[in-house]
Hints:
Layout: H1 2-23, H2 31-38, H3 42-51, H4 53-79, H5 83-92, H6 107-123
Helix pairs in contact: 1-2, 2-3, 3-4
Amino acid sequence: MKNSKNSTVGKASKINRGLILKAIPGSYGIVSDIAKRAKIDRKTVYNWINKDDKLAELFISERENLLDLAEIKLVEKIKTGSESMIALVLKTLGKSRGYVEGKAYDPALEDKLQNLKNLFDSIN
């Protein structure tokens, strides 16, 4: 009896893995979509992705496809002159060129301000 139960569990396990393997491509790594396609629950998808290197690699690749698609759409918006998309890129990718949001920290300026404060305090 014990062997037949383990055999059944093993078969079910292989079936789930196969279903997930087929469901990941085209899902963009959206777990609810994978679960719906495989007709299993989300927890099972997460469990498999966490324990199976091949499934995890395929899942990560799909997430990268989603990022690629988002970047393509972002560039399209920038080309149309979308100010909010231009600002987003400058705030994130443009930091190395001096584009920052809010107040930038300048240690030299901080020292000058402290010196002025000390001078003012010494006068009073």
